[in-house]
Amino acid sequence: MSPADTGASTIVAASTTSTAPDSRLTPGGPGYRRMSFALFLAGVATFALLYSTQALLPLISGEFGVAASAASWTVAAATGGLALFVLPMSALSERFGRRTVMTASLVVAVSIGVLVPFAPSLGALVVLRFLQGAALAGLPASATAYLAEEVRPKALVTAIGLFVAGNSVGGMSGRVITGWVAQEWGWRVAVGVIGLIAVGCAVAFRLLLPAPKHFTPGSLRPRVLARTVRAHLANPLLCRLYAIGALFMTVFGGVYTVIGYRLTEAPFSLPQGIVGSIFLVYLVGTVSASTAGRLVGRLGRRGALYLAGGTTATGLLVSLADSLPLVLLGLVLITAGFFAGHAVASSAVSKTATTGRAQASALYQSAYYIGSSTGSTVGALAFHAGGWAGTVGVGVLAVLGVVTITVLGSRAARVERGLAAA
């Protein structure tokens, strides 16, 4: 097999069998802290930009005179753009390097962010958001591939957990800041402020991220890419992980797209600033994502997924109460379960794929953001048809899907062990 076929990940496999000292980054070693903080900031910028309109949907509905299901396209378009372009962008990262593609993605995304506040119509806003999501597609898969190549395997789950923690901080800060800014100056100024914050994150990211030492350029030939993608899609474990990521994100996308409408309506009738502050519960996701490595160490991957799914389902049911403290508790549990499950599944993809890691991660991210777009749209439609209970029903079905897939994975693993023993 040629270097073009194996891609950049060959260097990782080779380094584990070589007698030369392992020069990959490890906690406490030189460069690890800079790398972690740089990718943390990239995660902050990605989620802050990607979901910058989510807490503002009631205001966008009011300005353009549209229902929740129409306004939700400002979120679904961004995540859909990312889902469509993450695989091509991962191929570019195999050829031109992870750091180069991540930097270019941030530059384009923040440039579009400057234009978003001036969108003259809902249609124009949706188009700009789609382009912004497409630009951001270079971040997620390239980041996990960079970590798989530059970080020692024992520290990989923790390192990816920190990147996911950056996602949670970005999602939280973006929604909280936009909520309070929009209450005083409107949603357009609010998304402009998020754009400026993302500019700062992009500059710091580029200055801090260490140059890659274990990257080997791959091929951009369509046949090579198609062969790599087919191999990943033929791997049952990877397909299960892709489905799990999509289902977890369906829950999360639906809940956080609709929660603003629920809290601004009776019986809560909260102002926009307070609704934005509700997203402080994302801090729980920061903790659960960053501790995913320890969770897998104690319970195993499937045990961690069962716990994440159970926590998410419990939060959905608790949130049905017409009591603000119980709604908040439900959001805490949903957020903790989602980020833990996402960190476990995404790190398992990086460990499972021995070649074409960028494409393996890209397929996961594509499924993940398709789940987000689906959750945003279906969750809003369910809310329109059946209120909050409708959105919760969609989420519970998605969690049942996670549990079912995990059970099937456990059975498949037992069968494989039996065959190996025989």
Itemize the secondary structure elements and their pairings:
Blueprint: H1 3-6, H2 10-17, H3 32-50, H4 57-64, H5 68-71, H6 73-96, H7 98-115, H8 122-136, H9 140-150, H10 156-185, H11 187-208, H12 222-233, H13 236-264, H14 272-277, H15 282-290, H16 292-318, H17 324-352, H18 357-421
Question: How would you describe this structure to a colleague?
Answer:
With 422 residues, the protein is mainly α. The chain has one domain (24-207, 224-421): Growth Hormone, Chain: A, CATH 1.20.1250.20. The protein is 81% helix and 0% strand. It is built from 18 helices and no strands. It has helices spanning 3-6, 10-17, 32-50, 57-64, 68-71, 73-96, 98-115, 122-136, 140-150, 156-185, 187-208, 222-233, 236-264, 272-277, 282-290, 292-318, 324-352, 357-421. Helix 6 (73-96) packs antiparallel against helix 7 (98-115), helix 7 (98-115) packs antiparallel against helix 9 and helix 9 packs across helix 18 (357-421). The longest helix has 65 residues, at 357-421. The chain is globular, with a radius of gyration of 21 Å. The chain starts with a helix and ends with a helix. The relative contact order is 0.16.
For this entry, give a set of tags.
single chain, mainly alpha, Growth Hormone, Chain: A, disordered N terminus
Can you describe this structure in just a few lines?
The protein has 422 residues and is mainly alpha-helical.
Uncertain ranges = 1-19
Q: Helices and strands: which structural class?
A: mainly alpha
CATH topology: Growth Hormone, Chain: A
> Rg to the nearest angstrom?
21 Å
DSSP strand count? 0
- Helix/strand order: HHHHHHHHHHHHHHHHHH
CATH class: Mainly Alpha
**Architecture, CATH level 2?**
Up-down Bundle
Shape: globular
> What's the number of helices?
18
Average per-residue pLDDT, rounded, comes to 85
What can be said about the biggest beta sheet?
none
* CATH H-level superfamily: MFS general substrate transporter like domains
**Which percent range describes the beta-strand content?**
under 5%
Distance between the termini: 31 Å
